[in-house]
C-alpha cells in the first residue's frame, strides 16, 4: 500500500516538475520578491520616513506581501489539484492505472501526498525567499517565519484537499473555480467578522466564526499572520482596537481549532477517497 | 441467443497451454452471469452471460454501442454492475490480486504525455509490483514486441495515435499476464500494425494466455479468434467458433420480375427476406431449400431472372444476427 501511494506521489511530483509548473511558480515568486525588495528598501531607507514610522510600517507591509503569497499558494493548490483526477479520468489515463493491482485509495492518497509535497516545497521556497529578501534590504525579520510558513502551507493544503475531493466528481475547470470561489468567500467572511467587531454586530461575527470552521483557510491564514507580528506591533494593535483590522491576529489559533482543522483534513480526504472509489471510469 | 449456442459449457480452447491438463487452472478466465448495466434510462448491458476458457483467444463482436466496452469495464472493475456478476481468473470482477495477472489495453488509450515510452512501461512495472531487476528486461521486450524499439526514450506526447496504441499494447503485455483484454486494439493502426497485433495475439496464445479481443472488425476476429460471441443491444446473440457461426443456413440473392412491389413480404416460412435494390436477399434457408423457393416464386407468377448463392462470410452472418434482433 505504502509503495503504491509513494509510486503515485512521485509520479505526481515528476509531472509538476516536467510540466514546468514548479519552475513557473518559482520564477513569478522571484520576480515578486524582487519587487517587494525594492519596496522594502525604499520604506526602510527613505529620508521622509522616521525610524519609528518605518518600524511600524514594515510588519504591515510584510503581512500584506505574505497575503499576496498566500493567495498565490491557494491559487496554485487549486490549479494543481483540480485536474489531477477529473482530467485523467476524462482522458483515459486513469483507466490503465486503476486496473493495476492497487487500491483506488492508493491512487488518491498518492496524488494528495505528491501535491502536498509540491505545495510544501513551494511554500518553503516563497517564505524563505521573502524573509531573506526583506531581511537583507530592511533588516526586518518576523518573529517566527517557520510557524507562519507552516500555517500558510496548511491554508493551501486545505484548499488542495477540498479541490481534490471536487475533482473526483467535477470537471477540472469547475472544481478549480469552485475551490477558488470558496477560498475567496472564506476570506471575505473573515473581513465581515472584522467589520462586525468594528460595528458591534454579533451576527456578522458569528457568520465569520462559522465560516472559519466550515472552511478553515481564513482561520489558518490568521495563524500565519500571528507569527509574522512582532510583539511591539501586537501590543500597539491591541491597544488601538486592532481586532477590527482584517490583517491582524490577536492570538494564535487555539488548540480546539487546530484539532478541528486536523479532523477537517481527515474527513475531506476520506470523502475524496470514497467518492473516487465510487466513481465509474 | 441464436440457435448456434445456448448456455454453453466452459470450453477449453484449441492451443491451450502446454497440453498438461493438471497445469491448467480449473476456473474459466472469464465467466459472466446475467451481467447488467443501466445508466439512468439507458440499458448498456441487458443480461450478458458468457464464458471464456483459459488459453482461449476470444472475440467479443458487436456493432458500435452494443455494450462491448461496458462489458469490459465491468469485468475489470472500472464500473459496477446494476445486476448479475462476473468472475475473472477465478475471482470476482475487479479483484485487486486478480488484476496482477491481467493486461489491459483500453479503447481510449492515453498515457502520461510528459513521460517517455520507457518511463510509462517502468511505471506500470512498478504498479504491477514487478521486481526492479526485471524492469529493463520487461520494458525492452515490450518495446521490441510492439515495434517501438528505438523510440523508447521519446516522449509519449510526440507519438502518433498509432504509436500510442502500440505503447498501450506493450503496457498490456508487461508481467506475462494470464488474461490480456484488448479493447479495439487496432483502431489506430495501419495494415502493418494490424498484422503485428495478430502476430502478438498468436504469441500470447502460444504462451497459454487468454486473450479477450473486443472488436467490431470482423476480419480481425476471423483471423485470430478461437471462438467469438456476438453481442447486440447488450445481449449475447450468438456464441461459437467462427466456423460454427458461418455454418448458419445458406443465403441467396434473387432477381425476380413480373411481380407487384412488396410481394415477397408474403413469403412466410422460407428464410428471412430483405430487399436490396433490384435484388432480394433470402437468408437462413434450410439446406436444399433453394429449388423449392424458386418453384414457389414461379407458381406465384414471378420470373426468376437470376439466383446467386451467397458465400456465408462471418460478416454476412454477423449482419444476419444483428438483423434478427431488429
Question: Can you walk me through this structure?
Answer:
The complex is a heterodimer of chains A (281) and B (326). Chain A is an all-alpha fold and 281 residues long. Chain A contains eleven helices and no strands. Chain A has helices spanning 2-18, 21-45, 51-91, 93-98, 104-138, 145-167, 172-199, 202-214, 217-226, 231-239, 255-278. The longest helix of chain A has 41 residues, at 51-91. Chain A is globular and about 65 Å long. The mean pLDDT of chain A is 90. In chain B, helix 3 (117-128) crosses helix 4. Chain B contains ten helices and 14 strands. Chain B has 326 residues and is an alpha/beta fold. Chain B is elongated and about 80 Å long. Chain B has helices at residues 68-76, 96-99, 117-128, 132-145, 161-173, 191-207, 218-224, 242-246, 290-299, 314-325; strands spanning 30-39, 42-52, 57-61, 83-88, 91-92, 102-105, 179-183, 210-215, 227-232, 235-240, 251-257, 272-276, 279-283, 303-310. Classes of the chains: A mainly alpha (281), B alpha/beta (326). The A-B interface holds A 3-4, 7, 11, 14-15, 18-19, 91-93, 95-103, 280-281 and B 73, 76-80, 96-97, 99-100, 102, 104, 106, 108-112, 114-115, 123-124, 126-129, 168, 171.
Amino acid at each position: 500500500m505504502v509503495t503504491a501511494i509513494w509510486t503515485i506521489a512521485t509520479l505526481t511530483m515528476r509531472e509538476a516538475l516536467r510540466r514546468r509548473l514548479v519552475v513557473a511558480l518559482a520564477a513569478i515568486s522571484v520576480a515578486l520578491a524582487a519587487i517587494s525588495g525594492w519596496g522594502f528598501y525604499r520604506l526602510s531607507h527613505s529620508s521622509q520616513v522616521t525610524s519609528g514610522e518605518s518600524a511600524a510600517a514594515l510588519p504591515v507591509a510584510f503581512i500584506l506581501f505574505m497575503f499576496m503569497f498566500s493567495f498565490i499558494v491557494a491559487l496554485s493548490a487549486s490549479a494543481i489539484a483540480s485536474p489531477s483526477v477529473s482530467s485523467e479520468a476524462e482522458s483515459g489515463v486513469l483507466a490503465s492505472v486503476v486496473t493495476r493491482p492497487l487500491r483506488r485509495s492508493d491512487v488518491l492518497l498518492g496524488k494528495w501526498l505528491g501535491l502536498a509535497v509540491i505545495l510544501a516545497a513551494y511554500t518553503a521556497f516563497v517564505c524563505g525567499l521573502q524573509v531573506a529578501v526583506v531581511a537583507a534590504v530592511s533588516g526586518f525579520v518576523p518573529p517566527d517565519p517557520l510557524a507562519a510558513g507552516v500555517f500558510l502551507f496548511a491554508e493551501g493544503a486545505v484548499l488542495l484537499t477540498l479541490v481534490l475531493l471536487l475533482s473526483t466528481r467535477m470537471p477540472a475547470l469547475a472544481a478549480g473555480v469552485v475551490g477558488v470561489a470558496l477560498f475567496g468567500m472564506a476570506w471575505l467572511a473573515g473581513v465581515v467578522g472584522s467589520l462586525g467587531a468594528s460595528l458591534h454586530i454579533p451576527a456578522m461575527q458569528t457568520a465569520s466564526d462559522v465560516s472559519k470552521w466550515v472552511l478553515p483557510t481564513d482561520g489558518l491564514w490568521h495563524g500565519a499572520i500571528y507569527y509574522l507580528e512582532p510583539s511591539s506591533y501586537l501590543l500597539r494593535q491591541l491597544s488601538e482596537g486592532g481586532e477590527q483590522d482584517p490583517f491582524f491576529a490577536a492570538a494564535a489559533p487555539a488548540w480546539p481549532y487546530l484539532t478541528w482543522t486536523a479532523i477537517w483534513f481527515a474527513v475531506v480526504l476520506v470523502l475524496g477517497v470514497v467518492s473516487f472509489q465510487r466513481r465509474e471510469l | 441467443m441464436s440457435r448456434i449456442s445456448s448456455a454453453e459449457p466452459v470450453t477449453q480452447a484449441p492451443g491451450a497451454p502446454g497440453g498438461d491438463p493438471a497445469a491448467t487452472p480449473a476456473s474459466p478466465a472469464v465467466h459472466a452471469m446475467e451481467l447488467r448495466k443501466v445508466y439512468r434510462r439507458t440499458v448498456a448491458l441487458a443480461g450478458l452471460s458468457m464464458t471464456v476458457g483459459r488459453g482461449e483467444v476470444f472475440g467479443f463482436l458487436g456493432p458500435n454501442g452494443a455494450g462491448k466496452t461496458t462489458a469490459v469495464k465491468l469485468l475489470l472493475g472500472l464500473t459496477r454492475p446494476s445486476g448479475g456478476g462476473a468472475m475473472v481468473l477465478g475471482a470476482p470482477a475487479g479483484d485487486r490480486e486478480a488484476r496482477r495477472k491481467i493486461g489491459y489495453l483500453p479503447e481510449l488509450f492515453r498515457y502520461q504525455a510528459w513521460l517517455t515510452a520507457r518511463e510509462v512501461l517502468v511505471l506500470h512495472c512498478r504498479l504491477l509490483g514487478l521486481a526492479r531487476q526485471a524492469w529493463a528486461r520487461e520494458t525492452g521486450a515490450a518495446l521490441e514486441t510492439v515495434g517501438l524499439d528505438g523510440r523508447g526514450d521519446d516522449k509519449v506526447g510526440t507519438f502518433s495515435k498509432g504509436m500510442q496504441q502500440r505503447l498501450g499494447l506493450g503496457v498490456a503485455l508487461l508481467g506475462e499476464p494470464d488474461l490480456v483484454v484488448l479493447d479495439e486494439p487496432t483502431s489506430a493502426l495501419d495494415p502493418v500494425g494490424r498484422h503485428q497485433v495478430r502476430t502478438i495475439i498468436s504469441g500470447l496464445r502460444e504462451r497459454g494466455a487468454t486473450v479477450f479481443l473486443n472488436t467490431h472488425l470482423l476480419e480481425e476476429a476471423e483471423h485470430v479468434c478461437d471462438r467469438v460471441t456476438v453481442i447486440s443491444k447488450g445481449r449475447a446473440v450468438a456464441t461459437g467458433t467462427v466456423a460454427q457461426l458461418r455454418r448458419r443456413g445458406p443465403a441467396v440473392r434473387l432477381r425476380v420480375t413480373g411481380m407487384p412491389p412488396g410481394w415477397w413480404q408474403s413469403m412466410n416460412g422460407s428464410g428471412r427476406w430483405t430487399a436490396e435494390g433490384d435484388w432480394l436477399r433470402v437468408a437462413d434457408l434450410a439446406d436444399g431449400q433453394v429449388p423449392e423457393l424458386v418453384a414457389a416464386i414461379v407458381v406465384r407468377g414471378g420470373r426468376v431472372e437470376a439466383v446467386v448463392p451467397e458465400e456465408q462470410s462471418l460478416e454476412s452472418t454477423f449482419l444476419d444476427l444483428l438483423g434478427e434482433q431488429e
